[in-house]
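dumping this here so i dont lose it
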């Protein structure tokens, strides 16, 4: 059943359709409009903006969320949004929410994140979108604060018309509710992962490598997502898809010319 008088909300994720995070997101916003879920049939964390090209994609309807229309997809998070737009939704969605991810997607994590890539794909399609992540990797994480933040974000995006290519990166701190300080609009911190690869040997004597590392924040300026999260805020970073380095463009035009 469809109802064009209600906002149409597409929900997806990268942790898979059975993850607690997406169940909590559906529960947080299910009364704000007509919700349709299209999510991977298995975990797809760290997939970034990968799409499936060399093999068929499959969709299967699911009753995992009761009377909420839901589909599980054999592809990546970006595939889920593409298939939803082309084959499932009867009209363009008013809002896409991706998450709630188990683990942080602040600063540089955005480029690796399947959660954010699903939201980005929707924004490319002209759907105002937000990726939501909780700074807790545990399967049994407490999503009560994240649900409140997700609902607030959705309500504000629906109440205040967003440009069609809007993309928000929302991260929620792992905190008791009484220590939460609210939502803060931020910029992306200059930070990255310093990876190391642990050399190991399997039971058959063959070498393999296990990626480890630590997160390094080099940004001491104020107003970053990392700073906001450490101070007890949920961070909201507006994201642009245009990767052009305009300062470097000016330098190259000056030094190289256009010939």
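and the seq i came up w/
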């Amino acid at each position: 059943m469809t109802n064009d008088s209600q906002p149409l909300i597409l929900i997806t994720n990268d942790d898979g359709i059975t993850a607690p995070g997406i169940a909590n997101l559906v529960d947080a916003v299910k009364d704000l409009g007509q919700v349709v879920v299209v999510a991977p049939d298995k975990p797809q964390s760290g997939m970034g903006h990968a799409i499936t090209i060399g093999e068929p994609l499959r969709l299967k309807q699911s009753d995992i969320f009761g009377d909420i229309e839901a589909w599980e997809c054999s592809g990546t998070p970006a595939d889920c949004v593409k298939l939803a737009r082309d084959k499932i939704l009867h009209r363009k969605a008013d809002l896409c929410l991706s998450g709630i991810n188990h683990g942080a997607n602040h600063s540089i994590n955005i480029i690796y994140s399947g959660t954010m890539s699903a939201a980005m794909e929707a924004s490319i399609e002209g759907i105002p979108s937000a990726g939501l992540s909780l700074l807790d990797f545990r399967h049994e994480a407490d999503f009560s604060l994240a649900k409140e933040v997700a609902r607030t974000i959705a309500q504000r995006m629906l109440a205040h018309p967003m440009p069609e290519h809007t993309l928000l990166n929302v991260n929620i701190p792992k905190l008791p509710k009484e220590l939460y300080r609210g939502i803060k609009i931020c910029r992306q911190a200059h930070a990255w992962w310093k990876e190391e690869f642990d050399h190991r040997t399997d039971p058959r004597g063959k070498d393999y490598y296990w990626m480890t590392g630590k997160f390094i924040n080099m940004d001491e300026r104020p107003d970053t997502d990392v700073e906001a999260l450490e101070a007890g805020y949920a961070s909201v970073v507006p994201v642009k898809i245009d990767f052009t380095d305009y300062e470097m463009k000016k330098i190259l035009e000056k030094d190289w010319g256009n010939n």
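The helical segments are 20-29, 77-88, 114-124, 144-159, 225-230, 246-255.
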